[in-house]
Design brief:
Distance between the termini of chain A: 11 Å
Largest sheet of chain A: 10 strands, antiparallel
Structural class of chain B: alpha+beta
Low-confidence stretches of chain B: 161-188
Largest sheet of chain B: 9 strands, antiparallel
CATH topology of chain B: Thiol Ester Dehydrase, Chain A
Shape of chain A: globular
Strand content of chain B: 25-35%
Order of helices and strands of chain B: HHHHEHEEEEEHHEHHEEHHEEEE
Largest interface: A-B, 49 and 47 residues
Number of helices of chain B: 11
Strand order of the largest sheet of chain B: 4-5-6-2-10-13-12-11-7
Mean pLDDT of chain A: 92
CATH superfamily of chain B: Hotdog Thioesterase
Oligomer: heterodimer
Number of strands of chain B: 13
Low-confidence stretches of chain A: 1-14
């Protein structure tokens, strides 16, 4: 992954190995799926309603793609204690669906470490790592390639949450946000057929906010807890009054899964984020179809995704590749092949 | 809505009409199954590191032969909050009466039912009229076996508004004025370094009986139980309780779930920074909001504190004991920075229906020696005369609930 600032004086270090974290969730259970869906405000019955899910091609509950954040938060940023771990980019690739009953494991690998000037600070370590998820004793199910910047802590993070100002909304703005929330509709059982998709078709939106402390509580409850020991998680979360990077990424995935429908499959999602979303901010994710290629016998759709906040400021962008059922090629064939 | 936040004859009658009616619980059930993950998450929330709940190998070698959940895990299966109607009237957790009949085994799935038992009208010095709602939750395995019941008590008091902050000084029933005097504003330390060191040393020295037996014959009236120390309380401790035991669920959830909930129910507060509808839980997370709620600062969650007592009793009784019953009244807030000592004294030892029991009077007090929770517990112990605890237990009746003579 080469997104972001140009790398200065690249060097790869292998001295510090990433330490495995105790997972918040090891087993994909209905309770754990529900907690994750609740944690991001994902109303899709495919993750939580056993009767609905039994009618899909999966024959039962499956996990939303970013559920894997509950198994591991994916930050691979060992060493440099005292510096922040800013989760700036991720490239997720999923090869197979995650089913209720699966027991999951993860390996963390530090791939590269460089130093660069990052947001006007010189000599900031940049760490690229990969979290590799598998069923216990089984093949690879997904990978997350992450890029973390390691700046010295910014002074603003020291301001007590209570003393920070947040964005004040007019009642018209709040009503518009609620209408956006209430109009989010997962595609569900009505298959989105590849042949019917056109370049330029809109995706989303989903809207999350105004971000409240209970939203962040819900995220931690679904994915990572509040550890008494440092676990090398990325910057953000409850203690800082901000959404975490993985939380922001999961919102993007929510926009994509709402669009693909029950029998589609999210193969890839990349997200680049400019800054963490503070309490009080509202985040929209939406996108559009940019191409509908076939790779081999596999019909795919490429999406671009954009995120803006309540001020209309762009705060993140992404891409996705999804596999859809097709009249010509039939249902999505899984697992998808593992290619580097 | 004109009756929002109002306690009057009409709103009380509306709630009273629900007595005895089974109530929906989907907003009170954080988990349905005691999965090992869920048990570990709950234990992190109450800082209970007993291997009987966390280590499958250890638990398999115990006399139970399997991983168990701590008794207070019931709060994750159903929050015991049975407080219907009185929209806009805040609720304050006032206590629980638990009765357990069998262990909570890992992987067990539970069905819970709840009914409102009673509405008690009270009059306080400052608030005037308030209501104590008592409801009962039954916890059954999917085979229908009754594992436990819990009676939750909820105080419904008029909401304190910004303009009424003077009123917040002494809320009923959780009187707070003496603690406000002892509690400096945030930033002030309430412990000397040596006091903090003593607290940490005491926490580190806490003993768990574990696999050693505590025989009933070795216990006598007057014996001390504990203490178990928890504190100084931090916001992270409160967050850990939330993420392990309830999430955002009790307040309608997060994001779109909360929007949909608040469109149906007038159960929210307006966030003073954004203007948006927000959960009434904010007083648990900031000192300012906690004062607005009449608590004097960021305050703990009653079931969290009561769960610490469960830890003390399991640690004291050992793996072969069985926490049989517990009643706790939450009397005053426990604030961020406060330290809690749970302790007990054996009131009585007795045998009934083939089991041997100990009744213990318990209380929680803080660093200012203010008692902020009080109650009674019953623990079944193995005995020389009757052998191991026989489960499931038959009901022990209500004698233990009689107030001790002091």
């Amino acid at each position: 992954m080469d997104e972001g600032s140009p790398v200065v004086s690249p060097q790869t270090r292998t001295a510090v190995e990433p330490r495995p974290r105790r997972p918040w969730v090891t087993m994909v259970t209905p309770d754990a799926l529900t907690h994750f869906a609740w944690s991001i405000g994902d109303a899709n019955p495919l993750w939580v309603d056993g009767v609905h899910a039994a009618g899909s091609r999966w024959g039962g509950l499956i996990a939303p793609p970013c559920f894997l954040y509950a198994v591991d938060e994916t930050t691979v940023a060992p060493g440099h204690e005292g510096r922040e771990r800013v989760y700036t980019n991720v490239a997720w690739t999923w090869f197979d669906a995650i089913h209720a009953g699966d027991e999951l494991a993860v390996d963390l690998v530090l791939i590269e470490e460089t130093e660069t000037e990052w947001r006007r600070e010189r000599g900031v370590p940049i760490q690229v790592g990969e979290a590799r998820f598998s069923r216990v004793g089984g093949p690879l199910i997904a990978t997350a390639r992450t890029r973390c910047a390691r700046p010295t802590p910014a002074d603003e993070t020291l301001t007590d949450i209570e003393d920070r100002s947040e964005h004040w909304y007019t009642s018209e703005e709040l009503e518009a946000i609620e209408i956006d929330v209430l109009s989010e509709t997962p595609r569900g059982a009505d298959d989105r057929i590849w042949e019917d998709v056109q370049v330029g078709d809109p995706v989303g939106s989903v809207v999350k906010g105004p971000l409240s402390v209970m939203d962040v509580v819900a995220w931690h409850a679904g994915t990572q807890g509040v550890s008494a020991q440092p676990l090398g998680h990325s910057t953000g979360g409850l203690s800082e009054g901000r959404a975490t990077g993985p939380q922001f990424v999961s919102w993007a995935a929510n926009a994509v899964t709402n669009w693909v429908g029950d029998n589609g499959f999210v193969h890839r999602l990349t997200v680049e984020m400019d800054e963490l979303v503070p309490l009080g901010d509202t985040t929209w994710w939406q996108g559009e179809v940019v191409s509908t290629p076939t790779v081999g016998e596999r019909p795919l759709v490429e999406l671009v995704l954009r995120s803006v906040n309540q001020l209309g400021t762009s705060i993140g962008r992404g891409t996705a590749i999804v596999a859809l059922p097709s009249r010509e090629y039939g249902p999505v064939a899984l697992p998808m092949e593992y290619t580097r | 809505m004109s009756s929002w936040g109002v306690i009057d004859d009409d709103t009380i009658a509306e709630a009273r009409a629900l007595i005895g009616t089974p109530l929906r619980r989907d907003r009170m059930q954080w988990v349905q199954t005691a999965t090992p993950d869920a048990i570990r998450q709950f234990c992190e929330g109450i800082a209970d590191d007993n291997p009987l709940w966390l280590d499958a190998d250890y638990a398999a070698a115990s006399n139970h032969g399997r991983l168990l959940a701590p008794p207070s895990f019931l709060y994750a299966l159903d929050a015991t909050i049975v407080a219907p109607k009185l929209a806009g009237v805040q609720w304050i957790y006032a206590g629980t009466v638990f009765r357990w009949y069998d262990v909570i085994a890992a992987h067990q799935r539970f069905d819970t039912t709840a009914v409102l038992l009673d509405m008690e009208e009270k009059t306080g010095r400052r608030f005037g009229r308030w209501v104590l709602q008592t409801g009962e939750v039954s916890y059954r395995t999917t085979d229908g076996a009754l594992v436990a019941t819990a009676q939750g008590k909820i105080a419904r008091t008029p909401r304190v508004r910004k303009s009424d902050e003077a009123q917040a000084e002494a809320s009923e029933p959780v009187s707070q004025s003496e603690k406000d005097a002892a509690q400096p504003d945030e930033g002030g330390a309430i412990y000397t370094p040596s006091q903090l060191a003593a607290i940490r040393a005491e926490a580190a020295a806490h003993q768990r009986l574990g696999s050693e037996p505590r025989l009933w014959e070795t216990v006598s009236a007057g014996d001390r139980v504990g203490p178990l120390i928890r504190g100084p309380l931090t916001l992270d401790d409160i967050f850990r309780w939330y993420v392990g035991a309830q999430g955002a669920l009790h307040y309608g959830g997060a994001h779109g779930d909360a929007v949909r909930y608040r469109r149906r129910h007038d159960d929210y507060e307006i966030n003073t920074k954004t203007g948006a509808k927000d959960s009434a839980a904010r007083g648990h997370f900031t000192a300012r909001e906690g004062r607005t709620a009449g608590m004097g600062g960021a305050y703990d969650v009653g079931p969290h504190r009561i769960s610490w007592l469960g830890t003390l009793l399991s640690d004291w009784g050992g793996d072969d004991s069985f926490l049989t019953a517990m009643t706790v009244d939450v009397l005053r807030p426990n604030l961020v920075e406060d330290t809690t000592w749970w302790s007990g004294r054996v009131r009585d030892t007795w045998q009934r229906d083939g089991n041997s029991f100990v009744t213990i009077d318990v209380r929680a007090q803080n660093q200012d020696e203010v008692v902020h929770a009080r109650g009674t517990a019953v623990v079944a112990l193995a005995s020389e005369s009757l052998g191991p605890v026989q489960l499931p237990l038959t009901d022990i009746g209500n004698d233990w609930l009689q107030k001790p003579t002091r």
